[in-house]
Amino acid sequence: MKLEAQVKNTLKKIKLSKKDKILVALSGGKDSTVTAYLLKKYGYNISGIHIDLKMGKYSSDCLKATEKLCNDLGIVLYVYDVKKEMGSSMCYIRSAVQTKHKGAIKNCAICGVIKKWILNKEARKLKFDKIATGHNLDDEAQTVLINVFKGSLQLSATSGPITKNTKDKKFVSRIKPLFYVLEDDVRAYAKKMKLPMHDEKCPCAIDSYRIQVRNFLEKLPGKDKINIRKNFEKISGKIKKKNLKIQYCGICGEPARGKVCKKCSLMET
Ligand code: SF4
Ligand SMILES: [Zn+2]
Fold first, then answer.
1. pLDDT tens-digit map of 132-142
2. Closest by alpha carbon to 18, among 36, 47, 32, 39?
3. Is the Cβ atom of 107 under 6 angstroms away from ligand 1?
4. What are residue 132's DSSP bridge partners?
5. 108 lines ligand 1 (CB under 6 A)
6. With contact defined as beta carbons under 8 Å apart, do 213 and 146 qualify?
């Protein structure tokens, strides 16, 4: 099967070891579900983590699908309850951040930063070697275009199926086994294999810049998205990379690009 061959090649390319303890970030959606399914199928040492954002029925359906998947795969599932751990649901956290920053920051930008922060902290606490996420080729093509439009192409220069330039004892490296797989192929594969998933749009996924770019890319054929990624890879070696020296956040102690990490600059400053 084409998708399986693509994923196998990606895992070979990043030299993923069967000895690595891998924590798969499971949202309940098709991408992370296929990621976990294939890593398990190929004999990697995986567990799952689900961040329960406590956003009503959507969140409980996502959790249910994730529990079923982990049960079917026979893997351990860690659940991070945002309400218990951070004191409020993601909806509340987000509106507090938006009020503080006068609405200038979009829903997904806030939620995405917080989820990334949680994943790194939890994976390190649980002593995992790597975090696997379900990002697919469409996500990556969107990221390239967003960085082109925003004039920050250097940010894309360090992207890839495994994180680059981020060797630090507090930073758990991330892998993206679906990096070269089109979203439509992931959806078709998940359906074909009858994997348990909750493939509905998040009710809070509104007003983000990424969604506008996604809507634009959705109208293009798959080969155009592949070309965005491929052509970018050809030139990425020539792009001057941003200085990615990691520091530790003065507020929470987590890895940061500056004196304060992105999560704390949203929530604490
Ligand atoms: S779509 Fe946006 S708001 Fe919804 S879970 Fe994902 S990042 Fe959070
Ligand atoms: Zn911080």
1. 999 999 999 99
2. 39
3. yes
4. 24, 175
5. yes
6. yes
